[in-house]
Amino acid sequence: MACNTSGCISRCCFSHGKFQEKLVIKLNDSLIQEELPEKNLNENKTYKSVFRVTKFIELNKNADLVGTADGFVYSFLYDDLMTRPKKIVSHFGIIKSLEKSPFSQDVYLTTGCDCNINIWVSDIFLEPVITLSVGKQIEKAVWSRTCSTIIASIIDNCIQIWDFSVTKYEPIFIQKMPNPDQKCTGLEFTEDGKHLCVSDISGKVVVYVLSNISSHDKDDEQYNLVYAIAKIIYGTKYFPSVLIKERKEFAEVFIKLDYEKYGREYS
After folding, report:
1. d(CA 104, CA 39)
2. Beta-carbon contacts of residue 265 (< 8 Å; ≥ 6 apart)
3. What is the separation, in whole angstroms, between the first and last Cα of the chain?
4. Which positions ≥6 away from 267 have C-beta within 8 Å?
5. Of 35, 52, 122, 132, which is least packed with CB atoms within 10 Å of its CB?
6. Prediction pTM value
């Protein structure tokens, strides 16, 4: 799949010795009416280009997601392109990160030009279930490939490691780049999850060894992800009731949390 700045999402395939590109969907400009009482209706109406695509992921069998330069994420059905894309309010400024969790087809993260890493469950909510607030603009965020609750992010010339199963209020580890002028441009976990590769504007790549971060098999990590999210939002008014109805794996975890609340063992 490929996206471009004119709002086009295309699917590319290799057939008969050459690549063929097929347009999947083109997001059109929309009419935005600003509520300005001091102006008349004609002056209030302005056209705003909200569909400059910056990121794209195939989330699951039900939805693909598109991030735009205006801080929105749009969800659309690949098998039903006549349906209007669903707009999810996401960030201020350009969508810089749009990444699906390696352990779930429904959980993904986003970053923009604000100070938040937002974690979402599918497209059933118009707001994130978890927000990691860092106080400074985030350049990029990525999931660990082996530990479902760990996220790495770039802020200025610092690398931050988050584990929201421990806390959502602050990173568990912060590493400044050796050179204050060494601006980071990208980061990625290795396949084994034991190292983090960080690139900078000079073309150098620094590899950090991650110690004291344990991982389990895939099934355990899938459960750990669901449990960590459920524990954070447990007791809120809206999220649990919807997830209990829409997602079986969350329903089971919320039952367990009910038992734990009253000191009872769930089996």
Report:
1. 48
2. 259
3. 43
4. none
5. 35
6. 0.80
